Amino acid sequence: MTARGIREGQNTEAPEAGDSGAGEAEYFDAEDLDVEEVLALANDGRGPTRDGSGAVPAPSGHGHRHRATPWPEARTAAARAARAGAARRAPVSVTLADALGLVLAAPLTALTDLPSFDTSAMDGWAVAGPGPWRIRDEGVLAGSAAPAPLADGEAVRIATGARIPPDTTAVLRSEHGRTDETGRLHPTRGMSHGQDIRPRGQECRSGDQLLPAAAVVTPAVLGLASAAGYDTLAAVPRPRVEVLVLGDELLTEGRPHDGLIRDALGPMLPPWLRALGAEVLAVRALGDDADALHRAVTTSTADLIVSTGGTASGPVDHVHPILRRVGAELLVDGVKVRPGHPMLLARIKDGQHLVGLPGNPLAAVSALLTLAEPLLRTLAGRPARVRYALPVREAVHGHPYDTRLVPVVLRGDRAVPLHYNGPAMLRGIAVADALAVVPPGGAGAGQETELLDLPWATAGMAACFT
Ligand SMILES: Nc1nc2c(c(=O)[nH]1)N[C@H]1C(S)=C(S)[C@@H](COP(=O)(O)OP(=O)(O)OC[C@H]3O[C@@H](n4cnc5c(N)ncnc54)[C@H](O)[C@@H]3O)O[C@H]1N2
Ligand code: MOO
């Protein structure tokens, strides 16, 4: 990867969680440090060093070992998990109005010549032979039916885009002609044969391939498809997603009170998921009710269930027990990334996965981009993300063994790390352009660091929330 780098997915495949080998190398102590702890260590001089050899105290309390997948491999595993399902998804026929952001399931071939008839490139006169010309009474406008042929020495008023009358030799622009006292038209500068006539088929012939399959439908593609005669497009369907918000402590309105807090994820995830190419079927607030979660998981028809909260091992953290109860296969159970390390990916059944986002809101963002994004991209048939890196303007502390995702703003050719990047905080990400992928051990000032763009930072609000 370079400053404007390579496409993801060209790397060799990493082992999935559960494979033996590096993908599940056991690690223990440092995973129990959260970001705040690591920063505290760094600040008091005991911090982790770039090579990960810094002093790390023994984990407080429980020294459990945990199987967690390295961050890059978690992303690969999520993309791979979706591949079989992606291959089985039948194309859908979508009106142009609904096709923005989808991926073409078949090449776009022209249904017509473009232009489909010889057409005037300018407002002026269609003329036949050398001037001066006698001007016909009735002009030719864009959209008018076949005009009568011109005789030599004859001219007719013509508008841009109008059909060229048969036997026309050129179009004279209005600013390049004058009429004499007898009403005859003279050119005021030299003109060439065929000037300002767009010949039929200049851009394409009927049947020409305009775009390959797998092209993303942008506004420009909609325009091209419409010009080429399409009313509908064959496209890869949007992956259908259901969001399950867990937690009895969550309020959906008013101010936090009495230990209750506002749900930050219910409002944040649907538009973000849409920006990632998904159709959001429903957002269900389930509280901390294991049976409700079981029911929601077993009755869902979504391609992807995204749950929030309940991924850890507290008394009401129901995600793992329910996955066991429904016989799901855990593909990723924890990722070596901060924040968000309890995130998980499970295969519920053929063609259906669940991504468990941790409840802390920035941890949920981290999991969304680590697991949901590659999975949805693959299901939607979208091209691999173009990876790129920029130098960080100042040093960023790292976790000793895990990747960190840190909100940054882009200033010129530098990424500037933002404060308020704790797992429970959204204040940093709310003003960020991207997340910097800080390798274990941290990044020194000026070190090139991979960036994950936030969809609205590159595409603009309107373009990405459709
Ligand atoms: N003993 C351990 N405890 C915890 C660990 C650990 O390794 N060992 N990991 C911590 C980390 S890291 C995270 S992240 C959380 C993950 O917890 P859960 O996914 O089980 O999430 P909850 O416990 O339900 O919530 C955590 C936190 O986030 C708040 N929350 C939840 N949902 C929302 C929402 N929709 N909007 C706003 N805030 C939300 C919730 O109130 C909690 O404060 O576990 C740690 N514990
Ligand atoms: O600290 Mo937890 O890393 O996911 O928020």
From TrEMBL:
Residues 242-378 form the MoaB/Mog domain. Pfam families: MoCF_biosynth, MoeA_C, MoeA_N. It comes from the Bacteria. Residues 1-29, 43-74, 180-201 are annotated as: Disordered. Keywords: Magnesium, Metal-binding, Molybdenum, Molybdenum cofactor biosynthesis, Transferase. It catalyses: adenylyl-molybdopterin + molybdate = Mo-molybdopterin + AMP + H(+). Its EC number is 2.10.1.1. The keyword Transferase applies. Signal peptide: none annotated. It is an enzyme of class 2 (transferase). Its cofactor is Mg(2+). Pathway: Cofactor biosynthesis; molybdopterin biosynthesis. Belongs to the MoeA family. Catalyzes the insertion of molybdate into adenylated molybdopterin with the concomitant release of AMP. This is Molybdopterin molybdenumtransferase. It comes from Streptomyces vulcanius. The lineage of its organism: Bacteria, Bacillati, Actinomycetota, Actinomycetes, Kitasatosporales.
